[in-house]
Write a structure and sequence with these properties.
Elements (H helix, E strand, L loop, with lengths): L1 H34 L1 H32 L25 E6 L2 E8 L21 E9 L7 E3 L5
Antiparallel strand pairs: 1-2, 2-3, 3-4
Helix pairs in contact: 1-2
Length: 154
């Protein structure tokens, strides 16, 4: 009888340890599945920066328009273009004029903002698919010169 009691005393810690390891391992695996892992998080952070670049570049273009009453023909007017360079390729986004009051800024995204759930922090009103995407801005008819994003409801 005492042998059986000793056996239970030695097995109980082992069983509890095994269960604890299983719970911790399950939590780690669930965390990786939910967040997509470190590689997906890195891609999301790069795309956050790309969205920010497009948004800030659109402000620079609007400022140029306000000073010159026309859209810039290219991005050479920017004094420090490095702050608008892609975080991975170090290239500027593609920019082109569509007409006198409309332009587009294009870049390649690694993730789709449509796949992101509310747990991700960035939302600068630029919804994009993965791959090459152009944010199109158009001058509004307001008293002041504003350019609004027009293709955000893909």
């Amino acid at each position: 009888m005492e042998n059986n009691n000793n056996l239970q005393k030695t097995l109980l810690p082992e069983i509890l340890f095994t269960i604890s390891c299983f719970v911790v391992l399950t939590a780690i695996i669930a965390g990786i599945i939910i967040t997509g892992g470190p590689e997906k998080q890195r891609k999301i952070r790069l795309d956050e920066k790309r969205v920010n670049i497009i948004r800030n570049l659109s402000y620079e273009i609007r400022s140029y328009y306000n000073s010159n009453s026309k859209l810039p023909s290219n991005l050479n007017f920017i004094s420090d273009s490095t702050k608008f360079s892609d975080p991975k390729t170090n290239k500027l986004p593609d920019y082109s004029i569509i007409n006198d009051t409309k332009f587009k800024i294009c870049t390649k995204f690694e993730t789709s903002s449509f796949d992101l759930n509310k747990t991700y922090s960035y939302d600068y009103n630029i919804k994009h698919p993965s791959g090459y995407f152009c944010a199109i801005y158009e001058k509004t008819k307001d008293k002041y010169v504003f350019f609004k994003l027009v293709n955000n409801d893909l």
